[in-house]
Structure formats: C-alpha cells, structure tokens
Amino acid sequence: MSLLEIQDLSVVYEPRGAVPTHAVKNASLSLEQGEFVGLVGESGSGKSTLGFAVTRLAKAPARISGGRIVFDGTDIAHLDAEELRSQRRGGFAMVLQSGMNALNPVRSIANHFGDIFAAHGHVPKGRRRQRAIELLDKVQLPSTVLDRYPGELSGGMRQRVSIALALSLEPRLMVFDEPTTALDVLVQHAVMDTVRELQAAEGFTAVLISHDLGVVLESAERVVVMHDGEIVEDGASRQIFSAPAHPYTQMLLSHYADPRAEVVELPGFERKASAAERAGGNGEARPERAAAHDAIVVDHVSKVYPPPRRGEKAVTAVDDVSFRLEPGAAMALVGQSGSGKSTIAKMVTGVERPTSGTVTFGDLRVDRLRRRQLRTLHADVQMVFQDPYSALNPLHTVEYTLTRPVENFTGLKGEAARERVLQLLETVGLTPVEQYAAKLPHQLSGGQRQRVVIARALASDPQVLIADEPVSMLDVSLRAGVLSLLEDLRADLGVSLLYITHDLLSARVVTDQIMVLHHGKVVESGGTTQVLRFPEDAYTTQLLDAIPQPARRFAGGAAS
Amino acid sequence: MADTTADPTTTATPAIADPESARGAESVNGPRRPARTRLGRTGQVLGRAFATVWANPKARVGLVILGMFVLMAIFAPLLAPYSPHDDSFGRNEPGSAAHWLGTTGAGEDVLSQVIYGARVSLLVGFVAGGLSTVVAVVIGLSWGYLRGWGNDVVNFLVNLFLVMPGLPLMIIIAAYLQNGGLPMIILVVVITGWAWGARVLRSQTQSLRSRDFVTAAIFSGESSARVVFREILPNMTSMIAGSFFGAATSAVLAESGLSFLGLGDMATVSWGSMIFWAQNSMAILTGQWILLFAPGLCIALLATSMTLVNFGVDGLSNPRLREGTGR
Predict the structure, then answer these.
(1) pLDDT in tens, A422-481
(2) Considering only residues 259 to 288 of chain A, which have any Cβ-Cβ distance to chain B shorter than 8 Å?
(3) In a domain, B263, yes or no
(4) DSSP string covering B53-76, please?
(5) Interface confidence (ipTM) of the complex
(6) Is the torsion defined by CA of A400, A484, B22, A182 positive or negative?
(7) What CATH topology corresponds to A4-254?
(8) DSSP reduced 3-state for B38
(9) How many domains does chain B fold into?
(10) B contact residues 218-247, partner A, Cβ 8 Å cutoff
(11) Domain A275-295+325-353+364-395+440-554 has CATH 3.40.50.150
(12) pLDDT tens, B187-225?
C-alpha cells in the first residue's frame, strides 16, 4: 500500500466578498515509502496549496472542497486538531520557504528542540540535548549552534535548523516547500545537497515543491508537473527530462540551458547586433536614435559602511572596483548576494556616495552630486527594479506612473505627454496601448508590470539603463520576453545596459562583457562568452557549478 | 516533437504560445475595470471603502449610532420641542408630557438642550479632529520622509508635546484664552492632540519610503513634496482615517471636559456645559439625575460609536483584520 494516497483532491480559496479560486482541481497522486518526488509549476499553479493541504496546514480562506488524503491508511483530510497534533509525530512534516524566519528570535535553538520534545514526550529529559545534537549533525551543523539565537545564524544555517526541527519527530513524509528559494545561490546548492543526502540516509518520503524544474530534476526520482491547479504530467525524472509529454513541461524545459555552452539559445529570445556594433564602432556612422554618447567610468571606487553594531568591524561592501561602461555596451555584474553588485548600482545612480574613488558620467561627477542635481543624472541614467510587485505604486494607473517622468524630464504636457506615454507602452510591447494605460498594477501580471517599469525607465530617453535582477522575480516563461525586450532596446535605441544578476544564463544572453564580484572585489572580468566558457577564477567556476544542470545528472555524454 | 528532445536548448518552440499575452487578454476583459475619470475612480474607491467598513459588525453599529447623532444635529430645530435657551418654564420640573426629561434649574427644556448639544459636540469633534489630523499628516509625513537636522528639530518638538500632560496644558491654554468661544476650544484641542497621530504616521512613512516605488518616483524626477503627498500619502489612507476618528473621539471628550470645568463658552449649549450647570445646581441632590445622565450618556455613546467605526477602518488596509474570515 502507498504511504500517501491523494484522491480527487480539490482545494478552493474563498475570501469574503471575492470570487472563489479553485487552486487545486481534482488532483490524484500516490507516493510510495522512501520516494523522492518533485512537484513543479509556476506561480499560481497550485503546487504550494497542494503541499499545505497534504500536511493539513492550509488555513482559511483555503478549504479542502473535495477528495481524500489517505496517509498510511487514515483519511487525514477531516482529522480534528488534537488527532492531527499527535499524528504529526512519525507522520508528516513540512519545511517552509521562509523556514529561516520561522524561528523565534528570542529563544535559543536548544529551546526550539526542547519545545518539540516536550510536546510529544518521545525523548526522555536527560537525552534531549544529546538527541538535538544528533539531529543537528544530520544537517551538518556543529553542536555549538544549540546555544545560539536565530539572529546569530546565517540564512542557510537557519534553514538547516528548521530541517532538523522537522526531522525531530521522525516523519515518514517530509514536504519541502521551496526550501532554498530565499537563499543565496551558492548556499542553495549546499542545502539541496544536504536534503538529498538526508533523504537517502533516513529513507523518508520527500516531496520537493519548487518553481525551478532544474532543481527538481537534479534531486527527485519522480516529477509531478502542475499547471493551473491540475496535474498535467507525472513521471520518472529521466523520462520527463528526455521525453516530456505535455506541452507545458516542454515549455518549462526549453528555458534551461548551460551558460557554458558554445551557443546559448532561449525560446523567444533573439540576439541582435547593438547599434554601436552595427556602426562598426565608428561614432559618426551611428544611427541618430543611438541614445548613449557618454560612458560611465568607475575609477578605484570603494564603499565602506560603518559597523552594524559597536565593537564589530566596518563592512567593506565594494573594494577598489574600476570599470568603464562604453556607450551602447552591455555589461553584467555578477556575484552572490553581499558581493557588492547592488552597492555599485547605487553609487552609479547617485543614491549612495563612494567612500573613495570617483564615478563619472560624461562630464558629471556622480559621486559629488547634490540632492537637487540628481535629477540631471536621472534624465540620463535610469533604473529597472528587481521586484515589479513593489516598484509600481498600487494606487496609480499605468498612465499616471508614465506621465510623471515624461512631464518631469521632457517638458511635454497634456496631449503631447499622453502621446509619448502611449508610444512608450508600444515600445515595451503592451498593446492595445489605450487599455493598458488605464490599468492599475494589480490588474497586470508580473511580466506586464516589469514592462511598465521598463517603460518608465525609458520615459526620459536615458542613455544608460541599470537593471537590477530584472527577471529574478518572474516565472521562467515570462523571463525570455523581458530579456528580449531589454535586448531590443539596446539594439534599437542604443542605450547602454548595466545588468546586475546572480543568474549567469541571462547574463550570457544579454551582455557582451562581464565582471564577477566576490566580497566587493572584481575577481574576473572580460567578454561574457569567454569568461563563462573558460572561467579562470575558482569563484566563477563555483557560481557556474551552482546552476542546476539536469543534463549533467542524466546521460553523461548527452550534456550540451 | 517530444521524442527527440534530449537537449533542452534545441527544443522546438513550445506549444504554449505566450502565457503573458493570454493573461493580459483575460484581464483586459476582466469584470473589475477602473472608472475612466478621476472623479469616478475616487467614487469607486470611497464606495468600496465604505462597503469594507460596513461589513464589520462592530463598525456597522458605530456607523448607525454616529449617523443618528449626525441627523439629530442637522435636524435639531425640527426635532427639539423648544428653543434650548428658552427659560420661560418652571424650574427643576421632573419629566412630564410637556418636558420629557424635565427642566433645568434655570427653567430650560432638557430634551431640547440635549438635541442641540449634539451640534456643538459633533462640530468640535469633526473640525478639531480634522484639523489635528491635517497637522499630524503634514508633520508626520515630512518628518518620516526627510532626513537631516530638520528631522531632529521636529523629533524634539513632537516628543515635547507627547510628554506634556494633555489635560493640564489644555486647562492652562483655555484659561489664558478666556472667552474665546468654540474656536478657542478647537484650537486648544488641536494643539494638544496632534502629536500621537504624527508619531504613528511617521513610522508608517518610514517603512513606505524604502519601498521601490518611492525610489522609482525619485528616479522619475519627482519633487520631495510630490513623492510624499502623491506616492506615500494615498497608501496610508486607512491609517489617516483611523487617526481622524481617534482624534475626533478625544476632541469630543476634551470639549465636554473643558465645558464641564467651566472653561468653555458658557453661553452655548453643549453636553459638557449642561453637566456643568447641573453640577452647579446640585441636580443630584434634588433627585434630577437625568440632568447629568442624559448628556453624559450622549457623550459616551458618541465616543463609543467613533471607536467602533475604527474597528472597521483597520480592515481597510489589512484584509487579515476583516472579521469573519476564519481563525
């Protein structure tokens, strides 16, 4: 008999005064003891809702509207709270995406273990500390962690602690809901290794929920693909990888590529020669629309932040970095979080001042600009933000959001300004323009919002666009569209692009030059293709290895 | 096309065309379309806000009580049987068919005074509450948004007003501005009542100012004033509405308190001055408890109704606080 049988399960969200949403529709699935199953889908596919329903953690307004969840012979869909509580030991456990924030900041790690042991009484008092150390050892943490507080641990360590806590009830089923999404790239890789080893050693059944098919294919034996609340494909990883049956799975798979490959192609993305390249580097021959004519020069720039707490060392975010962004060029700044790449963006846009060194844009000394002069800089240097959900004011229509920079920077008013706004919407591909102009942000999808953010950045006819992880918050299927928009802008309008990311694949497709940052220092720089194909620094190799590569796991030789 | 897809990079164009445009089409024809004109949109927003507040049972009770007081104040000349200043009746009469609540020591009709008293209380409540909210918004928002030495000065000022005990300050100012009438009372309430609101709005501003859309507005070349009042302010509407009702409640209480102490304009009829005169004529000793009770109850009910409305206002910004959505 299977460990978990989900039969015809439906979950519906019924918020008051709104139309109910059917998040999971008639899902059926069975899991065997000791299986490692991946559950994949884009945002809104119902994968997390299914995971929460299975562990009975779903809260109002979500409601299980039909079907059965049979765990080891009992239907848990209708257990009451106390039965459910006792069931949790030796039953099912869940590790959350924000698991690192699930720890109580004022209690030590030992207290967290103690609470669980006391609630279930399955570990005698004298052995509790010993048992906690054993559990921490399983997730590769030293015993010293026990007496620390959550605030003293890094994100990766806290996520490991929450995995150890989930393990402490000896569950037979563990649901991991995006356990590494909130973590840094390199840490992600290490935590996933731990999860894999743990599953192999302990033999529990694992369900890994992720939006990232690559991560799932690397770890799971079996993959379940969800789309719009329905399970569209269910099969062995190897089979999903080599012969995906459903078009949705095929689409997801097509967005994976190895940045180290000789030729990298993404569906819906076409590389264009930039205006500067077409002109053969000859300034006079450049088309008139070529916006950029000034270079950004960053010369021996450092940024030191004062120590966060008394007695600690000052933080050096950027350490002696120099580069030159030529007009019309595209350069990538890559590195893990904390490598100083966003700090560089802040200094280039005048939001922060460097501690030493100079930043110049044309004749403008960016590092000496006063607050009022920033406007001059922002007419030429604009920013595309990471999170399209927070970068638009929820209360303003698209038209208002775009009209403001048009009026501020170009001096157009009234009908002329509106004309320009519609033209901008056209440029970023939001047609029919009239309809999009009247919309509020919540009526747009993530990709559409990001296009509005890009349109706003273009409103002042800037020479330089600084894009800070512009696609990291978007679903894979929307990424290629936004990336090719950036590429088009660079090729057609001739703006320079400073592209900040930890995602080497997107860096490979949109940029010509790359700089790899580590602890605020440039460890490697050069042509993007050259650096990614033949990395010289160990850190670059590490970053490349952290990218999930299903091709590497399967087929050995067939890898691209 | 599924059988030859060993390498993901060479997969043919996927069958799912472009989910983005599909979603776009769906939302273009979606049911909730914003009104075209600004006026229409404001109306829609207000209507939705009222529906949210009304959906909360406590707030509904509050709105009904508040509505009754407002009607009572507006239609006082029609509702009241006599003029509130008409002292041609017998003194200290108990309740009767002619005078439901009896007459005062000066020979005025109590019911008429209670009805007319609503005018003063509501006027002071809404005007003083509104003014102190305006002061709180202007000071709180710029205090939260700006940095530098100006910030420290405002910080000092607000802290000063926060630590000063409100009632004694009010009494001193009121005694100093003797016989200023209602404007004086409103001024006193505003001076002593804005600081808390400013503090609350400031902390909310500080958390909103680090949001990307504020940074984006700066990149759009917006002036500081525009960033504060067009980008940040609309996102705090519910908090401002909440602080308005809070301020109005304390203004009503302050007005009654000052009038009761005899520091208001004794010529106007308000619930506070009614209690003051009742106290003066020792109404309790003569058995006329209704003279104290009726205006007292009205003050308490008005303050309660506004506090109840505030429960619903909380739900405007935070859907989790809307009641009845489960645990």
Answers:
(1) 999 998 888 888 889 988 888 888 888 999 999 999 998 899 999 988 888 888 878 888
(2) 261, 263-265, 267-268
(3) yes
(4) HHHSHHHHHHHHHHHHHHHHHHTH
(5) 0.78
(6) negative
(7) Rossmann fold (3.40.50)
(8) helix
(9) 1
(10) 218-222, 231, 234-235
(11) no
(12) 888 888 888 889 999 998 988 888 889 999 989 988 888
